[in-house]
Design brief:
This protein has 297 residues and is an alpha/beta fold. It has helices at residues 3-23, 43-54, 102-116, 134-139, 160-169, 200-211, 236-244, 250-256, 273-295, and strands at 60-68, 74-81, 88-94, 124-129, 176-183, 190-194, 231-234, 261-268. The protein binds zinc ion.
Length: 297
């Protein structure tokens, strides 16, 4: 390729990737945001379920990572599950977009399982933020109370959610980060990996999902780029570009901060909730297993 061709292609590639990273999981806000949407889910009930899931489990604690503040006040809860002698640390996040309910439902289930059974992934300690955007979740709205998309706020940290995550991650280096999302426009399961050339864990997971009889997304709606058989690979330079354009997502930020393996899991909301939960569970188990078995570099 000639130099002039490079100069022509590079900006196009940047624009293309910008679309890819910016639009990811972004098709869900069909409804106009007003900030006065009525509550459709019970935050107090979710908190009480989370407390019950943690219970008296050894090494497990529920701490406040932040506060979704303003006219609407709700804590952002962090569950810490410390396994004695564990050499790895995993961060599991969900509910950064309020209209993607399978993520928080799965994260609650994961807290329940991990707290009830210390033999489950014994070599890893877990930090779980099951509901990153309490206002959005309670209203079934993508944004937070201030109208910010928290998953585009990790260059600016204007949102309560982004600041809570920054506090959770302070001083920690995660071996694995999983962010559980949903896509109201997708027809099948898909996932992202970031600045990571090793596609064996994700390709293995996608093959498993297919074998289970679920559809795999071939065509996430974007300007130019699409999923390639259920997988989107974001290169490191794209993450830097998103930081420079001040639309950095949580996953992008955590990868740039040094998390070794970072994945975003997406389920199509057109499937029944039970199936979406199964897909999130399958992804979690496969990706944690892979990371703990030496996949982490
Ligand atoms: Zn999302």
């Amino acid at each position: 390729m000639t130099r002039s061709a490079c100069r022509t292609v590079a900006p196009a590639a940047v624009m293309t990737l910008c679309c890819l990273l910016a639009v990811s999981c972004a098709n869900g806000h069909r409804e106009p945001y007003t900030g006065v949407e009525p509550a459709v889910r019970d935050l107090a009930g979710f908190e009480s379920d989370l407390r019950a899931a943690v219970g008296e489990a050894p090494g497990a604690s529920l701490v406040q990572a932040g506060m979704a503040a303003g006219e609407f006040d709700a804590p952002v809860w962090l569950v810490r599950i410390e396994r004695q002698g564990a050499s790895r640390r995993v961060l599991l996040c969900a509910g950064i977009h309020g209209n993607e309910p399978a993520g928080p439902a799965f994260a609650l289930e994961a807290v329940r399982s991990l707290c009830a059974d210390a033999s489950l992934f014994p070599d890893a300690s877990f930090d779980v933020v099951a509901l990153l955007n309490p206002w959005g979740w309670s209203r079934d709205v993508r944004y937070d109370r201030a109208g910010i998309d928290p998953n585009r706020d990790f260059a600016t940290f204007a949102s309560d959610t982004a600041r809570a995550v920054r506090q959770v991650a302070a001083g920690r280096r995660y071996d694995l980060v999983l962010d559980h999302h949903e896509d109201p426009d997708a027809k099948g399961f898909y996932l992202y990996q970031y600045a990571d050339p090793d596609t064996r864990p994700t390709r293995g997971l996608i093959a498993k999902v297919k074998k289970m009889g679920f559809p795999v997304e071939q065509d996430v709606r974007m300007v130019i780029l699409r999923t390639r058989d259920g997988l989107i690979e974001a290169p490191r330079w794209g993450l830097w570009y998103m930081r420079a354009s001040r639309r950095l997502s949580m996953s992008n930020w955590l990868r740039l901060e040094g998390a070794a393996k970072v994945y975003t899991v997406e389920t199509p909301t057109l499937l029944p909730l039970e199936d979406r939960l199964l897909l999130h569970r399958t992804a979690f188990e496969a990706l944690v297993s892979s990371a703990l078995s030496g996949g982490v570099q």
